[in-house]
Amino acid sequence: MGILKLRPSCKDYIWGGKRLAKEYGKKIDGDVLAESWELSCHPDGPSTIMNGKYAGKTLEEYIETEGNEVLGTHCRRFRDFPILIKFIDAKDNLSIQVHPDNRYALKNEGQYGKTEMWYVMDAGENAFLYYGFQKEISKEEFARRIKEDTLLEVLNAVRVQKGDALFIESGTLHAIGKDILIAEIQQNSNVTYRVYDYGRVGKDGKKRDLHIEKALAVTKRVPIVRGKNSYPHVADCDYFTVDKLNLDGNVMKKMEGTVSDESFASILVLDGKGTINCGGEKLEFQKGNSFFVSAGSGAYQVEGICDALITTIREVIPFETLESRRVQAGRFTIVEDKVRVNGHEQPYDYLEIREGVCILPFHNGKVVLQKQYRYPVGSWQYETPGGFVDEGETPEEAAVRELKEETGYETEELISLGEFYPSFGSTNEKIHLFQARCGAQGESDREPGEALCLEEVSAERFAEMIAKGIFMHGAGLAAWARRSAAK
Fold first, then answer.
1. Cis bond leading into 376, ω under 30°?
2. Is 19 an annotated catalytic residue?
3. Phi, psi of 308 (to 5 degrees)
4. Is 6 helix (H, G, I), strand (E, B) or coil?
5. What are phi and psi of 347, to 5 degrees?
6. Which residues, listed in sequence order, are joined to residue 419 by a DSSP beta bridge?
7. Where are the beta strands (DSSP E) in 197-296?
8. Which stretches does DSSP call E strand in 115-212?
9. Catalytically annotated residue among 7, 194, 482, 483
10. Is 146:188 a contact under the CB 8 Å cutoff?
11. What is the tens place of the pLDDT at every residue in 196-243?
12. How many Cα atoms are found within 13 Å in the side-chain-facing hemisphere of 195?
């Protein structure tokens, strides 16, 4: 168990550039470096471990030795290691291509199909990529346009900039355009069907192979329909869940998380530097590094100034939404859905509530509590500060704002303690938990309808209040439990 720092396998495809070598420290043998496979057990380019007793071994060899428990229980449904993570430097346009789904790929190629997501790390001023069709076309028109070199006329060109993310489901015709730097998280597959390649030739002087018949069989010839938003994730599907980590070194200097026995975690550093600490092991990282954290490793901390993508594997969702209706009721939205689960159709109603934050604040070593009259239960209750995340606001920004508004305290340091759902079965409300170190205190800016006062208690007294049922605030209890578990 623990953290493994990985060395990538590198690819010198003809459309690649040199940025991965110059800016990200990747080793380059030839003239170009198109892709670096940062997390890979694929035989076409496995990752190699750089630290610890497995240094020099491939990631796959580590898994074979330690057992599949290091992948986590959510990975039991996969025949092979589930994902492959890359950096891609497109100096020139990539081919117009499509990837098959699992059923077609396993039958015809002997490996998984490919659903993937792109996170744009950098892009030129006029950079764009192709993403599906502008309109629905027939299979016959698709074949004719490939033959006549007019396919680009009906493709959907999308301008991109740094920070954009796109989800590319199997069967989606697509291509990365030139002057784009991308982090790609995908299924563990190297199956690509090219349909158009700009007439280019490979290193052997011959035009690269096209795969027209297979592409005709698997391509969805319709415009992209954006599905359910993955927020707060960058991407979320049955194959992978991707989250963004941003430590600015000012308000957010540290992130604390947990790698349970359900899934391993991949940490891909897009920018910055710092340290990762897990199980008593501390490793330094810098821009371009990739880490594998084994399932069951427990609490870990990331400190420094960085942007990173954290990828995990979740359970398969058994519910299928058939119909959905929303009814506004004051500050709440009642969602009235019709779902199918285990082949059975039934209604499912729940409250849709904006995401919120809860802050566990410390001032001079004491916990800052607020005692507030709560109308629904008809009594005074002890709570920790919190509130809704406003539109266009990050959870971190909301936490700093709410702490100031409710207590008057400025935030000197903010540490993420993860997320908390107060009632899974009746609401989708998600609360982001934070620990804060308070600085100077000024005037608070409470809402007119709030009746509350502040108390500062020692950590020992706070623990006693929890044990005796004096403090019963759910999100506050969760924040305290997370902090205690991480110590």
1. no
2. no
3. -150, 155
4. strand
5. -75, 150
6. 432
7. 235-236, 241-247, 252-259, 265-278, 281-286, 290-293
8. 116-123, 128-133, 155-159, 165-168, 174-175, 180-187, 193-196
9. 194
10. no
11. 988 887 777 777 888 999 999 999 998 986 655 576 789 999 999 999
12. 30
